[in-house]
Amino acid sequence: MKDIKILGFLCQWCAYQGADLAGTSRLTYPPEVRVIKVPCSGRVSSHMIFKAFQKGADAVFVAGCHPGDCHFKSGNIIAEKRIKVVKSILDTIGVEPIRLDFFFISASEGVRFKKVVEEFYAQIEKLGSLNLKNGK
Amino acid sequence: MKNKEKIGVFICHCGTNIAGKIDIKNLIQKNSGKENLFFFDYPYFCSEPGQTFIKEKINQLNLTRIVIAACSPSLHEKTFQKVAQEAGINPYLISCANIREQCSWVTLDKEKATEKAEKIIFSHINRVIYQEPLFVKEVEIIPRVLIIGGGIAGIEAALQIARSGKEVYLVEKEPSIGGHMAKLDKTFPTLDCASCILTPKMVEVRENKNVKLFTYSEVEEVSGFVGNFKVKIRKKARSVNLLKCTGCGICIEKCPVKVDSEFDMGLSKRKAIYIPFPQAVPQVPVIDRENCLWFTNNKCGVCKKICPFSAIDYNMEDEIVVEKFGAIIVATGFSLFNPETIYQYGYKRFPNIFTSLEIERLLSPTGPTSGEIILKDGKIPQEVAIIHCVGSRDENYQPYCSSICCLYSLKFAYLIKEKTKAKIYNFYIDLRLTRKGGEDFYNRVLEEGIEFIRGKPSQIKMQKDGKLLIECEDTLLGKIRKISVDMVILSTAICPEKSTPFLARILGLSLSQDGFFQEKHPKLAPVSTMVEGIYIAGCCQGPKDIPESVAQAGLAAAEVISLIDRKKIEISPIVAEINEDYCSGCGICIELCPYNALEYNSQKIKAKLTPEKCFGCGICVSACFAGALSLKNYREQEILAQIEGIL
């Protein structure tokens, strides 16, 4: 069976620091989860998400600060809303919307980062890999 | 793609931290010979010889772009940017691949780790090709400091900074500075008098010309960035003119209204016009408008009639002060856990159950009983129980250790024994007396014959004879014990101050899981925050004792002085950019920008960007359907290239 590939976009202030803390605490999670650092979860465009699916990601997640903690005041809330919109577009084009998700993860939540990505991974693994007909 | 670029890829072993999990040799072998890519490895690139190695390679091979595969960019991105700059490469032409925190440390399987590291490295190689040289701008730092909170940490920081000749605004929400320390009687473990060591500092704050004191004031809005914060402070209407009042106190004497004193934790009464405690700074009363007859019933007016200096002003309104600051220190302290939520302990339901701060007031010579430990009926207690960890180390309330309660509980035991000769029981889970002199103090308390019972009481009952019955499993004896006492002291936990979430929001700070302010690094940047120019000190960062609070305040002051003495600071060039040719003038970006950096230009029917106001979040960029906006160093093509590399 083909390996599942998961791409995460992590806000550099909270979620990326949380992922670093998971590392510093030597918590393990599936190596198929890979991440890209962004200045704010609000920087993640729908274009980037579609590109990730087109380039072979089986699932994508965006993670930002908890509500009220955003370094840029409201970027996380805007990102969360945007993810909902993109989910509905995915549904329209026949991609299961649960392949995309948004999580709130703070800089102190290394344990939560591990838990969130493991649960997300398990959910996607059950779903199997994504077959886009005219990908690439 | 720019093919002329020569990219140096430097893979760090980090001792065995990376090399132990990732097969670097194999990774390099597999990829060597690829056009325009030059791979190198080294035990520690962050070391001096490691940095020299990078510089040498840049010069020997005329490398134009650099990928560093090592630890998290949060740790050494700045180090390597400096290395690149010294070797003549623009610091924004490097990219840091995090193959330690997010690869070797989180992956069990070596093969998988190597595969993941390779993907991460190539995603950064893809990205670095699209990166552009950027140049930092310098802005002047305003040599004025805002300190929020006038407890011991805020006072200490204010004095240190003021002594260095810089202007300090000290904002305190209560009518006087002093904070919780002003309420304490003696301090552990030396038992020196709290107000004797605090009062001189409070007076110095009042006397120092560099300190502008804003008591009974609150910070409402913060904008701007390091070196140039713009802050709105609300000076609440004190109803007494600070300049005219001499603090004679005749108004207080004549005021007919009595209400519970906040300073004495409700154990004594104060007037509706009051000075919270005798050593208060400033020595100027404040009218409590909620209880004053003039404000509630439009009657009385005695204070105004009697004041010899016409200092009373019923028409005083809140004043808004807007000022610019170069740096901010947050020292807002803590609030005490309310034990009413632990119903079975009977606090407020039964008499003679006190919290730690209430006991501090009872012990204090200026307190409601003039320092005598007495029961509600005026008798001296014969048996006293002190219950440790009330609200802390408890999954139902605060899971963390409140850090200072063990030692203050021992202090209470010692002082109450000394004053009343009562039999004293300490109910504890563990004794954590790690501070200097803590163990000696414990031995001294043991010599006094104070009893220690290991176990957390399950409940407190009221007996018919008026005594309190404590039920507890003594976990050392393995038996249930029932102990009847006259007085119970609850050693309540230190909790985050109530304003903490609000301040975190307006300052852009993060909170830790416990709800206290999150420091930038727990060991190496304990008073810095993720927002440059904003520092934290004292209990707002987590429970701590006075020496620790003072030490943090000193460090925060040193950080601020060092920052301001630099006179100028470099600001990040990572800001948005607009291509007006593509802008359709839809205005979506304008609504989304959290900093009002985008405006509508109605003449051109286009968005207008002010880069000085931009903080580089990129929210506008991802919302622009026309692709007119982009964020430097995080341009769409840079991230898209990175996506392609990592999958």
Question: What does this molecule look like?
Answer:
The complex is a heterodimer of chains A (136) and B (647). By secondary structure, chain A is an alpha/beta fold. Chain A has one domain: 3-Layer(aba) Sandwich (Rossmann fold), CATH 3.40.50. In chain A, 40% of the residues lie in helices and 17% in strands. A 4-stranded parallel β-sheet of chain A has the order 2-1-3-4, with helices on both faces. In chain A, α1 packs across α4. The longest helix of chain A has 18 residues. With 647 residues, chain B is an alpha/beta fold. The two termini of chain B are 19 Å apart. Chain B has 18 helices and 34 strands. Chain B folds into 5 domains: 130 residues, Rossmann fold (3-Layer(aba) Sandwich), CATH 3.40.50; 181 residues, FAD/NAD(P)-binding domain (3-Layer(bba) Sandwich), CATH 3.50.50; 57 residues, no CATH class; 161 residues, 3-Layer(bba) Sandwich (FAD/NAD(P)-binding domain); 56 residues, Alpha-Beta Plaits (2-Layer Sandwich), CATH 3.30.70. In chain B, strands 10-7-6-18-29 form a 5-stranded parallel β-sheet. A 5-stranded parallel β-sheet of chain B has the order 20-27-21-22-23. A 4-stranded parallel β-sheet of chain B has the order 2-1-3-4, sandwiched between helices. At the A-B interface, α1, β2, α2 and α3 of A face α4, α5, α14, α17 and α18 of B.
